[in-house]
């Protein structure tokens, strides 16, 4: 729901200013998009753990964002976690043994690994594309974890 508010403001010398309008989405601060607030990082998250581990964070709304309710609020966030996969290992496997699907097997993507194995890396094309995708970090571990 969009609201247009007509406000009368004053400057630093308490002189009346012109009316102005602020358009804002009417929602509570805790309902904002994650880009509209900053949260504290966890100090007790385990790096290698189950992906469901969560922690209590204190979040603060950015100064230029308008919202209803408390501008500082608690929120449960997921920990960043890794399954132990290294980006450098995945890239090295993709360059050297990518035609046999070793990179995809290493990342836990066994279906794609079988496809690359039996098609000889898509006759080399799939291998080149995978080197690029792993190199820029687009392809990651199948369990959704982060690289070490």
From TrEMBL:
The lineage of its organism: Eukaryota, Metazoa, Chordata, Craniata, Vertebrata. It comes from Chloebia gouldiae (Gouldian finch). GO terms for cellular component: membrane. Keywords: Glycoprotein, Membrane, Signal, Transmembrane, Transmembrane helix. The chain crosses the membrane at residues 85-105, 117-139. It comes from the Eukaryota. Its main location: membrane. This is TM2 domain-containing protein 3. It is found in: Membrane. It is a multi-pass membrane protein. InterPro entries: TM2, TM2D1-3-like. Belongs to the TM2 family. Residues 84-131 form the TM2 domain.
């Amino acid at each position: 729901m969009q609201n247009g508010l007509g406000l009368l403001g004053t400057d630093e010398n308490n002189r009346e200013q012109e009316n102005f309008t602020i358009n804002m989405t009417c929602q509570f601060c805790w309902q904002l998009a994650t880009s509209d607030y900053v949260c504290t990082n966890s100090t007790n998250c385990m790096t290698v753990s189950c992906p469901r581990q969560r922690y209590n964070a204190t979040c603060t709304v950015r100064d230029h964002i308008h919202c209803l309710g408390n501008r500082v609020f608690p929120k449960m966030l997921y920990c960043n976690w890794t399954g132990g996969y290294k980006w450098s290992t995945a890239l090295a496997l993709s360059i050297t043994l990518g035609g046999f699907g070793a990179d995809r097997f290493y990342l836990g993507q066994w279906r794609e690994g079988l496809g690359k194995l039996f098609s000889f890396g898509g006759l080399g094309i799939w291998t080149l594309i995978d080197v690029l995708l792993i190199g820029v970090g687009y392809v990651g571990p199948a369990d959704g974890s982060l690289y070490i």
